[in-house]
Amino acid sequence: MEVITSSDDGGAVRTKEVKAFGTAAADANLQQMSIRRREFQVQDVEIEILYCGVCHSDLHTARNEWHGTKYPCVPGHEIVGKVTGVGGEVTKFKVGDLAAVGCMVDSCHDCDYCKEGLEQFCAAGNIQTYNSHDKYIGAETYGGYSESIVVTEDFVLRVPENLDLPATAPLLCAGITTYSPLKHWNVGPGVKVGVVGLGGLGHMAVKIAKAMGAEVVVYTTSPSKVEDARKLGADDVVLSKDKEQMKRYKGKLHFIIDAVSAQHDINSYLKLLRVDGSLVLVGAPEHPLPVAAFNVITHRRTLAGSSIGGIKETQEMLDFCGKHNIVSDIEMIDINQINEAYERLLKGDVKYRFVIDMQSLKSG
Amino acid sequence: MEVITSSDDGGAVRTKEVKAFGTAAADANLQQMSIRRREFQVQDVEIEILYCGVCHSDLHTARNEWHGTKYPCVPGHEIVGKVTGVGGEVTKFKVGDLAAVGCMVDSCHDCDYCKEGLEQFCAAGNIQTYNSHDKYIGAETYGGYSESIVVTEDFVLRVPENLDLPATAPLLCAGITTYSPLKHWNVGPGVKVGVVGLGGLGHMAVKIAKAMGAEVVVYTTSPSKVEDARKLGADDVVLSKDKEQMKRYKGKLHFIIDAVSAQHDINSYLKLLRVDGSLVLVGAPEHPLPVAAFNVITHRRTLAGSSIGGIKETQEMLDFCGKHNIVSDIEMIDINQINEAYERLLKGDVKYRFVIDMQSLKSG
Lengths: 364, 364
Prior knowledge:
Number of helices of chain A: 12
CATH architecture of the largest domain in chain A: Alpha-Beta Complex
Radius of gyration of chain A: 21 Å
Distance between the termini of chain A: 19 Å
Shape of chain A: globular
Strand content of chain A: 25-35%
Oligomer: homodimer
CATH superfamily of the largest domain in chain A: Medium-chain alcohol dehydrogenases, catalytic domain
């Protein structure tokens, strides 16, 4: 059923009903629902969603753990699919192309950061793929747990044809979140990189850092992951609970990417850095992390953070992954398994990313 | 009285007795004592100490607050004086020259960091001006609260002739500790710099950052320092206890130098940084500082630390200060006032650095 609704600037916009899977409250399970998508405008690309990755942010938002969730909420920002419609001004996509959408669907295009291609830091606040204000239809944005999505061309990514499509979906968040800091901090040959935490983000960091030519040491609390880390390409693996093993790279690493979102002792990792080394957080523990001043002062070390990446850099990451044949290790699920998948996610019981086969929604 | 002692490599080294002012225990006052200095060797410069600045580190070490102090302890690492003797291989100094010594008197000369001119990060551990092992006479090093010092030429600095000599002494620690990070993080025209804490380090940071061409905002808890900050050159002053004032530069500063060694809320300062901005600690609070991950992740901000500077950079700083006519604001004291000065230091009651007129030791 077509409905005409009103955009932020007062224009009339036709919308249509689309099947989705979302939640009506923080303590409710996800279930099938209907949402409305705008019909594609002149600069829009309409995408039939084929696969959508399941990010821990989906769970945090669905359950209002970061507060500010508006319901109903349809998560999902690791989206790959096929173009089913393009507006008259669209130049980079045509019907039938593969296309992808990540964590953002728009930004102001006008601030210093947007002009630099850092839309993730848009001064006005970018429009996220879900749980943001949708200026086109004056409602909330709804994510990738749905049949289709309509996104302005500038925020749609091209997908390398040689990659396994479902396993490509997690690149749109887990991939860019690790690629961006590895690139920004000049990881490459001759650089010793520590990867803390071997989950959805960590396993991508290992693959990408190796492809960049770095030496990679994985830090994990799980003896069961040692073998896995090596298979993923790690040059060495350290059990972080073992104090003796933790001494092995003291003062020797140039860069650490820390993908642990549970509370953990950041100081024991800062001590592993060489002079001018950087530890970058891509996981966000709930409570502040105590940092001993001497651990940064004595070696001019830095503790930093990084958040996804800009659109241009996301395309660069996808092209890099295409060239190096990098995808995520995934476990495919049907949409009806999403609530169970969230429970397993909480236990770290996934290698290394759930991806929803969206065919299961269409036929459900 | 001349005494022959043994160096680490087994050689015999003549030493002589020198008047100094130091402490025999963590809870004892500083008092006059005798120490031994080596006679100058072929690569050594012997310096008659004319003035010595009083750094908070002196107090921490004298009172064993950082642990590891060996007694007797003679503090002082902001040393200026006149050359009274040079070894046969010394090429850069002659008797009668002004000379200065900072926080280090030697390093391994051989590690990657020393080769890069980063002796402050010497992998073997540099030899600090006091409370380090003195390889030449197999004892402890003694600092600048003394009549004279003998230092290998490579660690002796040239002093610009145009600067007020007593007010130059604090440049050797407070000056380089602030110059080095301002330089390393590219402070210059068009850069908005926050200086947190207006004490010995902070007031030097204001002067140096201004001379580098930056816009400088001072953060202080003391309404009484607002006027002072402006006189020192600050473009703006924010009372950090005032929540409204703290909003003024939210997301607007490129760089913050944090010179507060008391516990304080680092997150409220991280929020002032723009994307890719850095907050650098040069003060070292005793307890770890809680850092909220989101405060670094959302703007790719960095929290870093910095420690003094290398010898080449220290000379560069002195030359820069000579060129821009920058010295410390000081209060001159006699050596007998040092215990009282320490008590005043604890209360922040000094504008902005005590400097000891060492003539008072010689004539004492």
